[in-house]
Amino acid sequence: MQILGVDIGGSGIKGAIVDTETGEFVGERHRIDTPKPATPEAVAEVLAQLTSHFNWQGPVGCGFPASIQHGVARTAANLSSGFIGTDIDKLFSETTQCPCFCLNDADAAGIAEMHFGVGAGQNGVVLLITIGTGLGTAFFTDGVLLPNTELGHVYMANGKEGEHYASDAVRKKEDLGWKSWGQRFNKYLCLMEDLFWPDLIILGGGASKKFDKFKQQISVKAPIKPAALLNQAGIIGAALHAEAKNQKK
Ligand code: BGC
Fold first, then answer.
1. Which of 53-67, 72-86, 154-168 has the lowest mean pLDDT?
2. What is the pLDDT of residues 171-223, one digit of tens each?
3. 10 and 79 in contact (C-beta within 8 Å)?
4. How far is the CA of 134 from the centre of ligand 1 (A)?
5. What CA–CA distance (Å, rounded) separates 92 from 77?
6. What whole-number distance in Å separates Cα of residue 165 and Cα of residue 184?
7. Which of 81, 91, 150, 165 would bridge 160 by S-S if both were Cys, CB 3.0 to 4.6 A apart?
8. Model pLDDT, residue 139
9. What is the average pLDDT score of the chain?
10. Which residues of 147-169 are buried (b: 16+ CB within 10 A; e: fewer)?
11. How far is the CA of 122 from the centre of ligand 1 (A)?
């Protein structure tokens, strides 16, 4: 089946039509800058521009950088706080005139990696961490997602939230080299390991492409694999989510 998958991020909103059988894009990806300020109405308008761009009338899956409980945004760490409490499934569906199904962006990336990427066929506990503006997490046991884990906000021994200490945005802002940022990220991974003992850790997001530059700093026991689908994972996973939800309607 073909579904429009969208990845809503702090700087860009990207969409592509996804063939959910193969996980491949049908045609080109399209990107529009995230509006500033990123209010619910402004983001919904950009989504409508995307559906018009693709001349799309079917289901839309949206990865969104917040906890999404049954279509309602519960947090908004890196977007307008106006999203908190907003039924974004409803708002986006009304604005685009297409049935929209939203989920956390890291959960979307995780679903795609477990289907088509390095997590395919992996049992046990899998933790996917997206390294970007924030640290997003997706948590699976025997392939089943526990949605909305917000483990990027766990406090570390230094009193800082994980994502305020070891995200890619912090690396850029503080102009850290890969070695010193890698040491920080390793502390975060060690905390995750102490708490959850994953059998596999998958790294996604921009910095995962540079794994070779910081892998020497990583000391956790769990095997670590960079994501296979890179920046396509969020779009593909959002499409898979929408397909599943649309069938249940
Ligand atoms: C948000 C998460 C999101 C992550 C990556 C965090 O700040 O709280 O919901 O998955 O950033 O975008």
1. 72-86
2. 999 999 999 999 999 999 999 999 999 999 999 998 888 999 999 999 999 99
3. yes
4. 5
5. 20
6. 7
7. 165
8. 98
9. 96
10. bbbbbbebebeeeebbbbbbbbb
11. 24
Owner of token pair 């025997």: 142
User: What single string gives the DSSP state of each residue in 81-108?
Assistant: GGGTT-BHHHHHHHHHTS-EEEEEHHHH
Q: How far is the CA of 5 from the centre of ligand 1 (A)?
A: 18
pTM for this predicted structure: 0.97
Yes or no: say if 79 and 126 are a contact pair by the CB < 8 Å rule. no
Give the lowest-confidence range in 16-20, 152-156, 245-249. Answer: 245-249
What is the distance between the alpha carbons of residues 62 and 68, in angstroms, rounded to a whole number?
Answer: 11
Domains of the chain: 2-107+232-248 (3.30.420.40), 121-227 (3.30.420.40)
CA distance 235 to 213: 26
Amino acid found at 99 = P
The percent of residues above 90 in pLDDT, for the chain, comes to 93
Q: What is the pLDDT of residue 120?
A: 97
Ligand 1 pocket at CB < 6 A: 65-67, 75, 77-78, 104-106, 130, 132, 134, 136, 150, 152, 163
Would you state the pLDDT for residue 71?
96
What lies within 8 Å, CB to CB, of 19 at 6+ separation is 1, 2, 25, 26
What is the pLDDT, as a whole number, of residue 65?
A: 96
